[in-house]
Design brief:
Length: 98
Amino acid sequence: MLTNATESRNHWLRVRLRGHRSNRDGIGARILLVTDSGSQWNHVTTSVGYAGSSEPEVHFGLGRNSLVRTLEVWWPSGTRQSLQNLTADRRIEIEEPQ
């Protein structure tokens, strides 16, 4: 794993999904993140270009926001999951409800 050693006052959140009914890595899941500054959408994929791939983890840059008000996951199985008030600057793993 690479680590950015640059000092910054900005915050971040990394999300890894673990599917049960959907595929194991949650590939295809859509994620909505909401902070006081606005919202961001992303999706889980390992496809980043021709003959390239990346880890199935989603990285959100939060700027000055140290709290995620809402994080919603739409799993490929159709399940919708919502988490509230997550602290920043960490990696979280979310398991799909069975």
